[in-house]
Design brief:
globular, alpha/beta, type ii restriction endonuclease, domain 2
Amino acid sequence: MSKYVDFISNNHFEDCVRHVLSAYGKAKELETSLDDAIKEGNIFKSDLFSNVVDPFKMRFDTIRTSIKDCIEGEILRQLNKSVEQRLGEFHQKLLGGVKGWVDLGIGDSKKVDLKNEEETIFIEMKNKHNTCNSSSLEQVRDNLEAITGDYHNAVAYWAYIIPTKSNKSGNDVWVKKKRNKIPAIRRIWGENVYELVTGDGSNLKRIHSALPKVINTVLAKNNTEAIPDIIERINKKLKPYYETIESALYKEVFVDHD
């Protein structure tokens, strides 16, 4: 079998894709949770309603659409949240498989996500430029400053793949308000991230182009059930509750239960 791309192994690429696709397993978890809740006689105990659903928004939504569509929208919202989290880890894991680089893993104990083996380049990786809120971005800055303090010859990067609309790619000193300007602390985004790690910014496009083939291969190997089929089953199981679900939802949110 030919290689998907020439800078990482096929197995590693498939593992990174599998990591993202596993988030779609949330749909099956929602179905199982709903089955348990129906047996208990209260559908609102299911994970589908784990976050408080706004009964007023549902009332407005059902003027324009249907309960079925509202339920499908909530399922997709929860799936998207899980997938977006995994996408934030996808590029970290993938670039960690490039020769000469180390993926430092996921967890509170690590300061950043990637480093080269010579410990001269450290990267905190985000998927989008606006992933971090202000407090999280302050923590990223603290971590990068700590690293450049510990490794005096190192350059530390805040990296993100999806840029702003106006700046597609870039690499510059990270100037942050109320912080000292430190040349060794930089921000890098878009194709420049892949240029830094792989030596060729075009590899970002190559990953994107190869994804359909890799995704289909992983799905075939795992015999993964189609998400629309699971969503359709969930809606069928909820159909007997459609007529009363809006009023029952109001009681669930606002009325105390003994």
